[in-house]
Amino acid sequence: MTAEMILFFIFGAVSLIGAISVISFRHPIYSALSLIVTFFAQAGLFVLLGAHFVAAVQVIVYAGAIMVLFLFVIMLLNLGTLSAQGALTGKLKGVAVVLGILLAAQGIFIAVNAFTDTEVGSADAMEKATALANNPIETSDIGELLFTEYLLPFEVTSLILLAALIGVIVLVKRDNQTES
Amino acid sequence: MEINILEQITIPIIKILFIAHLLIIGVMAMIWSERRVSGWMQDRLGPNRVGPQGLLQPIADGIKFLFKEDLIPNHVDKPLYVLAPAMLLVPAMITIAVVPFGGNITIAGLDDPISLQIADINVGILYILAIASLGVYGVVIGAWASNNKYSLLGGLRSSAQMISYELTLGLAIIGVLMLSESLSLRTIAEEQGSNMWEWNFLIHFPAFLAFTTAMFAETNRLPFDLAEAEQELVAGYHTEYSSMKFAIFFMAEYMNMIVGSAVVVTLFLGGWHFFGLENTGGEGSILAGLVSFAIFFIKTGIFLFIFIWVRWTLPRFRYDQLMNFGWKFLLPVALTSIVVTGTLWVVTNGNRLLIGIGNVVAAFIVVAIVAGMLALDNNSKSSTQAIPDTAPLRGLDAVE
Fold it and tell me: Which of B9, B77, B123 to mutate to test the interface with A (most CBs of A within 10 A)?
């Protein structure tokens, strides 16, 4: 067993435990913190794949920025502990069941595919993965792809984000005006 | 894969132990010098009883903290309350891993030269930004777990401030990254060369100022220490903490300062270079390694002195001033530096002198425009509003 394998299992276990804790903890703050642990472990998995840039961005964007806002909101609203059945009632329960079945189906599909597909785990695929891990993808490669092959999706994403930003400002401004 | 135990395991461990201990000793030295320099600036002595010149004072403080009762109040959220100091200290410590503190040294008998750096990863600067953004959790969780209104207010202020200034922190370095064409801190330091006029702080002067200011805000130092404004919040997010847990918060703050200074020195002040002095005794010799390390150490020390200097020079910002300053001045300046550096790099074919001049001129124009807009905004407000903004106790006016 190589060092990478050991690290993979550690990061994998941590991210699984974190993910399970997110839905098991009754208190939203603990859930949010577990989610951060999961993001962090996933960043570790990205590093093992040689995707250093993605790992760093994962931590900056998800663990560093988005989850801080989550915590912020949870603290400001002071949500308190969820009761045993509390949150899922009525229509929400039906939606949750449908989504849960869909997710389980996806998981089973991926698992079955992974075990039956001859390419996964074959010597050829292992070789490719090792080559990738030994020659990490340079950040400049990602930049080049973003500005050549994926220019349109990149620009569209930026515009969507800009639109969301302007939308938020408009909403906040309107609130202020009606108050005064 | 063959593993060379000496080169791949022993030497990295020595480097890690050395730097980790240096950081802790650095914290002690910082606490001593902060108190003594503060004393000097205020024309008083400062602590000078324990050891020569009071040098053993931090150790005495540490012993006192260790022997105090480790009190956990009843009303706190216990697991998070205990976890929070560590969540602040760990990010502060591990950021130093990617900072290069000297050139390479070659030792006879070893295949590869030893680089004076724990890990030279190719996304070094992103790693620093990522880990620095995690520091806010220690403050927020500590504040929330304390179950105290002052603590929570301090924590919320602090997190809002850190999120706002993180943007500037990230955007201000993009100009530097563009010219170095690398994210590795070692490459960035090497690119700047030996001579002072080639260092990044002259080429990217507005970005350097914006980055330094944002760094002060990220470390919660005066003039940005609203999170622990004594007059308003007792002690802010660590009000409920005592003994060693408080000491860990304290240490983390100083570690953040040291690491922040080291990053500024690497990014903008040429790292371990100083007019060719870093190659004393030939490039790659042990002497050169020691000298380059000393240069880096002194530069970081000078920057840390500026931290203390600013503390006793500038008064604390008000909260709205803090937000206005961050979003309306620093952020536009940082954004301008990206556009100007990128444009001039293409137009002038990478002429650093022109990029430097262009950056400063553009920053002046942007600041003037923003200041003009703010002045106009204020004028229109005060002419239409019945109660001027400056009236004290506006709430009372409304009641009457």
Answer: B123
Q: Do B140 and A71 touch (CB under 8 A)?
A: yes
Task: Give the other-Cβ count within 10 Å of B355's Cβ.
Answer: 25
Q: Using a CB–CB cutoff of 8 Å, tell me whether B128 touches chain A.
A: no
CA distance B268 to B356: 13
> Which residues of B fall within a CB distance of 8 Å from A1?
none
Give pTM, 2 decimals.
Answer: 0.82
Q: What is the average per-residue pLDDT within B255-279?
A: 84
Strands (E), A29-119: none
> Which residues 105-134 of chain A have a CB within 8 Å of chain B?
none
Q: How far is Cα A97 from Cα A79, in angstroms, rounded to an integer?
A: 24
Residues of A in contact with B130 (CB under 8 A): 43, 56, 59-60, 63-64
Looking at the complex, report in whole angstroms how far the Cα of residue B183 sits from the nearest Cα belonging to chain A: 8
Q: Indicate yes or no: CB of A53 within 8 angstroms of CB of B126.
A: yes
**Among all chains, which residue has been given the structure tokens 């400001």?**
A76
pLDDT (tens digit per residue) in A38-97: 998 998 888 887 788 888 888 888 888 888 888 878 877 766 665 555 555 667 788 888
Residue position matching structure tokens 């994210």? B183
Q: Does A75 touch chain B (CB under 8 A)?
A: yes
Residue B130 · residue A64 · CB < 8 Å: yes
| CB pair distance less than 8 Å for B129 and A56 | yes
Measure the CA angle with vertex B259, ends B255 and B260; round to 5°: 110
Tokens 């002040």 belong to B269
Tell whether B354 is within 8 A of chain A (Cβ).
no
Contact B130 A75 (CB under 8 A): no
Going by C-alpha positions, the residue among B135, B310, B128 that lies closest to residue B209 is: B310
Q: Are B133 and A63 in contact (CB under 8 A)?
A: yes
Nearest-CA residue of chain A relative to B133?
Answer: A64
3-state secondary structure of B351: coil
B397 pLDDT higher than 50: no
Phi/psi of residue B26, nearest 5 degrees? -60, -40
Collapsing DSSP to helix, strand or coil, B184 comes out as: coil
Q: What is the pLDDT of residues B311-361, one digit of tens each?
A: 888 888 877 888 888 888 888 888 888 888 888 888 888 777 888 888 888
Q: Which of B163, B152, B251 is nearest to B214 (CA)?
A: B163
Nearest to B290 by CA among B116, B159, B41: B116
> What are the pLDDT digits (tens) for A84-140?
555 556 677 888 889 989 999 998 988 888 777 666 556 676 677 677 666 666 777
The DSSP result for B224-271, as a single string, is S-GGG-HHHHTTGGGTT--HHHHHHHHHHHHHHHHHHHHHHHHHHS-T
Q: A162 vs A156, A166, B176, CA distance in Å?
A: 10, 6, 25
CA–CA–CA angle B197, B114, B298 (5° rounding): 40
Chain A residues with CB under 8 Å of B121 CB are: 52
Tell me how close the Cα of B131 comes to any Cα of chain A, in angstroms: 8
Chain A residues within an 8 Å CB radius of B156: 72, 75-76
